[in-house]
Write a structure and sequence with these properties.
128 residues; mainly alpha
Length: 128
C-alpha cells in the first residue's frame, strides 16, 4: 500500500491544481491549449514526458485490485497511452485538440473531472 499512497500523494494534488486552474481560468487554459497544439515539438516532448511518467507509475504500481489502488494503475495506463499516442501521431493530436478547444464546455468538464479525481486520490493517499 506504500507505493499506492505515495503515488496518490504526488498526482492527487497536481490533478486538483489542474482542475481548479481550468475552472478558474478557462480562457487562459484555452489560449495555452491553442499555443500548444500549434507547436509540434511541444506535443512530441509532452508525449515523451507522459510516457515516462506513465511507465514509472506502472513499474512501481502494477496493481489491479477491487479498491482505490486500481485508480492509480489506471492513471499510469492512461498517461502511458496518451504519451504513445502523442509520439506516434502528433498531427492527429492537433486535429483532436482543435476540436476540444472549440467546445465551450470542455474546460468546465475537464476541470470538474480533474478536481474530482485529484481530490479522491489526495484523500486516499493521505488518509490511507
Amino acid at each position: 500500500m506504500d507505493a499506492s499512497s505515495t503515488i496518490a500523494r504526488l498526482i492527487g494534488p497536481v490533478f486538483c491544481a489542474m482542475g481548479i486552474g481550468m475552472l478558474a481560468n478557462g480562457e487562459t487554459y484555452r489560449q495555452i491549449g491553442t499555443q500548444f497544439i500549434n507547436n509540434q515539438p511541444f506535443i512530441y516532448f509532452s508525449g515523451v514526458l507522459l510516457l515516462v511518467g506513465g511507465l514509472a507509475i506502472l513499474n512501481a504500481h502494477p496493481v489491479w485490485t477491487r479498491d482505490w489502488r486500481s485508480v492509480v494503475t489506471a492513471v499510469g495506463w492512461a498517461l502511458a497511452c496518451v504519451g504513445v499516442f502523442r509520439l506516434i501521431a502528433p498531427q492527429f493530436v492537433t486535429f483532436v485538440g482543435g476540436s476540444f478547444l472549440t467546445s465551450g464546455g470542455f474546460f468546465l468538464g475537464a476541470g470538474v473531472f480533474f478536481l474530482a479525481l485529484g481530490s479522491y486520490l489526495t484523500f486516499k493517499g493521505y488518509a490511507a
